[in-house]
């Protein structure tokens, strides 16, 4: 190991145990750990001259009364509402929220996770794309971790989501019943993100029920050209009959809205506009925007209550768990023919 910093992974491999077992040893949590295992880990640590890092040691000592919330985008309406609801639930119990933004970047997320553990947070609420699930599992062996807006099977982690697939299908069915002949679903690449996949699945299911071919427009939020390319497609389709554009989230609709709104007022055919999520500007535009309202306040309240129970010893962590709360279709004039 000369010339290379020895890591907890190296210790676990040399001792023939899991990283979680080494972490428990370092934090003096010896329950269900044999004496032979303790001696073996101690010998490896001494032989490799291992110096425990913040991740291994960060949870020793007293509670910090800090709970971290890490989201992909702080400005996303879902996250604003979630953070507000969490604050209302946790403040009276004396906990402070430490909020940070990963920007959906794998390396940034990993760095922030390690930094937060070094600050001895008591619990973690995480919105993740799933790029650091092994690290999240390691942290979840030490403190309560709850994932929001995403579903990944990680030991000891609870995921809290809305009914993405069925809510998406409900919206698309309503659009076809209204008289739209085609519905364009605008989304980012799934890339293993459960919410994207489920909303796409719901869209496909409703298309199949009505005998319509799926029409999917993939975009990249960092590339305006991918959005611009969809506008002439919508314009051409609208000449043949009423079409609706349904975006997988409010941020995508925000990028598309100016060009699509211009089309809907000048185009011979009717163009409807709808989105999953309820952006704060949805009721302010004319006509008001049809959307799927996620129960963000309820999700935040449930997560806060669950964390308090876990931190007070009234709850237990075990197998991965999933909590699903229902969304609501808000039908507005933007999709009324």
Task: Tell me what the structure shows.
With 337 residues, this protein is α/β, with parallel strands linked by helices. It has helices at residues 8-15, 19-26, 35-48, 54-57, 77-90, 106-118, 133-140, 164-178, 194-209, 224-228, 230-238, 250-266, 296-311; strands at residues 66-71, 96-101, 123-126, 145-148, 157-162, 182-187, 215-218, 243-247, 271-276, 290-293, 321-325, 328-330. The strands form two sheets. Strands 2-1-3-4-5-11 form a six-stranded parallel beta sheet, with helices on both faces. Helix 1 (8-15) crosses helix 2 (19-26). The radius of gyration is 24 Å and the shape is elongated.
Summary of the model, kept short:
With 337 residues, the chain is α/β, with parallel strands linked by helices. Helix content is 44%, strand content 18%. It has three domains: 8-52, no CATH class; 66-162 and 296-325, Response regulator (Rossmann fold, 3-Layer(aba) Sandwich); 164-294 and 329-335, 3-Layer(aba) Sandwich (Rossmann fold), CATH 3.40.50.2300.
């Amino acid at each position: 190991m000369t010339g290379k910093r020895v890591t907890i992974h190296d210790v676990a491999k040399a001792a023939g145990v899991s990283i979680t077992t080494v972490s428990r040893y370092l934090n003096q949590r010896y329950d269900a750990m044999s004496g032979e295992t303790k001696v073996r880990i101690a010998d490896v640590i001494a032989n490799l001259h291992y110096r425990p890092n913040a991740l291994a040691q960060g949870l020793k000592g007293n509670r910090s009364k800090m709970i971290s919330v890490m989201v992909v985008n702080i400005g996303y309406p879902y996250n604003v509402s979630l953070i507000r609801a969490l604050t209302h639930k946790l403040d009276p119990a004396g906990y402070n929220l430490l909020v940070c933004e990963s920007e959906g970047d794998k390396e940034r997320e990993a760095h922030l996770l390690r930094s937060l553990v070094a600050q001895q947070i008591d619990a973690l609420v995480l919105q993740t794309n799933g790029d650091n699930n092994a690290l999240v599992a390691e942290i979840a062996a030490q403190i309560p971790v709850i994932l929001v807006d995403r579903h990944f099977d990680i030991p000891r982690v609870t995921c809290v989501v809305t009914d993405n697939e069925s809510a998406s299908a409900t919206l698309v069915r309503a659009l076809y019943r209204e008289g739209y002949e085609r519905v364009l679903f605008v989304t980012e690449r799934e890339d293993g993100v459960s919410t994207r996949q489920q909303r796409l699945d719901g869209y496909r299911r409703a298309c199949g029920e009505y005998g319509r071919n799926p029409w999917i427009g993939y975009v990249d939020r960092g590339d305006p050209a991918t959005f611009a390319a969809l506008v002439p497609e919508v314009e051409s389709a609208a000449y043949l009959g009423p079409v609706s554009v349904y975006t997988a989230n409010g941020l995508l609709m925000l990028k598309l809205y100016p060009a699509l709104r211009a089309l809907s007022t000048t185009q011979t055919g009717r163009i409807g506009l709808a989105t999953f999520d309820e952006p704060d500007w949805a009721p302010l535009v004319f006509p008001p925007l049809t959307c799927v309202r996620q129960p963000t306040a309820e999700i935040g309240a449930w997560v806060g209550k669950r964390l308090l129970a876990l931190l007070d010893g009234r709850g237990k962590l075990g197998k991965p768990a999933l909590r699903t709360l229902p969304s609501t279709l808000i039908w507005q004039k933007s999709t009324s023919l």
